[in-house]
Write a structure and sequence with these properties.
Elements lengths: L1 H19 E5 L15 E5 L5 E11 L3 E7 L3 E3 L2 E5 L1 H4 L2 E5 L2 H10 L5 E11 L5 E11 L6 E4 L4 E3 L12 H18 L3 H10 L5 H6 L2 H4 L8 H4 L4 E5 L10 E9 L6 H7 L4 E6 L3 E3 L12 E10 L2 E5 L3 E5 L18 E9 L10 E9 L19 E13 L12 E13 L2 E10 L11 E6 L1 H22 L18 H7 L5 H7 L1 E9 L13 E10 L2 E11 L9 E11 L5 E11 L17 E13 L4 E13 L7 E2 L7 H4 L6 E15 L4 E10 L12
Parallel strand pairs: 7-32, 11-18
Antiparallel strand pairs: 1-2, 2-6, 3-4, 3-5, 3-8, 4-7, 8-9, 10-12, 12-15, 13-14, 13-16, 16-17, 16-18, 19-20, 20-21, 21-22, 22-23, 23-24, 24-25, 25-26, 26-27, 27-28, 28-29, 29-30, 30-31, 31-33, 33-34
Helix pairs in contact: 4-5
Length: about 700
Amino acid sequence: MKIYKILLLFFIAAISTFAQVSVKLQQPPPYQFKVEEFWKIVLINGGDRPINVYLIGTATESLQGKVIEATSSIITLQKGVKAVSGRDLGPFSVSESNSRYKDIILNTGGLPSGSYNICIAVIDAADGKQIATDCISVNIENFNRMELVSPMDGEILGDNFNEDAEIDQTTDTQWEDSTSEISKKKKDRDWDEAVGDLKKKKDYDWDEVVGDPKKLTDNNKKPVNRSKNSPIVIFSWLPPIPVPPGARISYRLKIVEIYGNQSVHSAMASNPLYYQSFNLSTTTIRYPIAAQPLMPGRKYAWSVEAFAGDFKIQESEVRSFEIQGGEESKIRYDVSNAGTVQYSSSGFFDKSGLPSGLSSFSIRSSGASALSMFRNTPPIDILSTPGALVFSGDAKLAIVSNSKPPQFSQLPSTYKTLEINPRLSVYDIPFGLNIYLSSLNNSSRQSLNSVSFILDIERLKSKIKERISEKASSAISSADSTLGKIDPATLNDPSKLVDNAEKLGLISPAEKFFLNIKTLGIGRTYPTYSDFTVNGVPVNGLDLGYQLGILYFAVAVGNNLDGINDVSFKRSFLSGQFGFGEKENTHFFLSAVKMKDDPNSIQVSPSNLSLTPQENVVLGSEGKLNLFNKLIEIDGEGAVSGLTRNLNDADFTSGSIPGFINDLLTPKLSTSFDYAWKGKIAFNNQATATYFSLGVTSRKSIPAATETCKR
């Protein structure tokens, strides 16, 4: 009898223990399930004592059976209710029972498409018995990446302008008349008189023109009809596929204007949306006539987001396009006009009475260009050498005003931007600053204001090309044999610029040294290595590239993102490139990139579940081979990436991860790996104007260092 009583008590205790613990899986986002979501659960210990447990998560596909099993570490489950995540349960061990699924899970961090039964089991660590379980059914779809179709990247639009468009040409004529008269004064070296006459001109009284833009349109000028002046722009893209049965996919089109020297990625992260359209059911849209006009001469970046219900399932790449025209509003620079101050002003006005309410839209751009403090080759007391120090630069002020905030846009009714670009040439070595300030800067976005110090390599190359051209012309006219030192066919070859200049004695040792600096930027820079590694990502820091004979190296270091509460973590950036050859010619380069968020840099509200600190490591190689005097060109690139979606996740171990990866990053539960490669062969016969190419690309889900924060 005692034996039966003991067994009965033991049975009741076992049932009581089992009933005391329960587990509840949280529903994942629609159409996806990442490995780390096994552990987004709620555990309840209804007993009167703590219990040691571990968890086992399994995913079973309806046709293939069990495809993955993950096991947590042992934890002590205290009394009460506890919402846990992978960080509380690690480190983990993960095993995949199917090699096909093993590769997909490693590459994407999630399960492949299919219908799954996801289960989590709570195991008593003392005896290995299951004491609680919960299961959910999910349908997973791994969508192909959306592809933007039109406009093409970098396309210049404007062939479909209405022929009746009325463009403000008044200021161009006034500008030419004014500068013509000033140039005559300059020849007499009467600086004060030239500038004085400029200020006296009624049409170029700075305060009068900028202060009252209406005076320009009242000067025998009819207002411009904006509907006639804007080109027809059609945006189109390919949808993510496959579309799940019964699912409604909608889209959001985003457009931002690119300011100053921004890259498309920096513009999308920093600038207010110039235009946005929600809940689009089709993959084609014409830019609305009632929206803020796309201005001639301006550049824009655009991307598309796809939603299933209210959940964003995908976002496209970012592309750019430009509206043709706007020459009268672009900064004018001419180094030959040393000794003058030239003012340029342009205007655009709309009184079309459109339904959008833009009945008094106007934009005013005014500025000083080709500003030089010295005449050509003036004597400088500091260095006692004529032409040793030349200051030049340009500036531009733009004021945009609407009667009320434009529709479909985050832009305010009135805003101002200022660009200042001073240049200092020391013995023909051009240095400069790019300063951009805007009233659109907002603390809830990445900083729009920027300052950068640069070495203007292209201007230095241009100066040397001018010397070679002048020498060639002089040699031809005077039958000088000096030109025989170089091959005339290489005169216009950029790769032979230094060699030709050396042979003709037209380059100094200092200029040769600085020409070997391929890139130098301090402040806001946009390093570019290759498509799959670093391509226009904004960096606040240093960007340097140097050619030392056949060796090439580059480094970029700084911060990619500022920390903004509930928006983005502070993100550090480090990249390097090393190899043989020159970028423009035959070469082989190795690249490495590491971007990492600081988890302690900001405050994240508990309701913000989408913002997590991330880390991305990319290793890549790329090369080019020129054959038969550049008649045939072969180039290719490959890269591998390790992306951690949440640095707060627990560590995990898997035999699928190569050992050297652990030296580059610490694999977390949310870490995934992938690769991409491409190749191309091209035939280019300039003599017969014949060109054709053949290429292939295999791009997986590799997140290159072009990725920044998302809106």
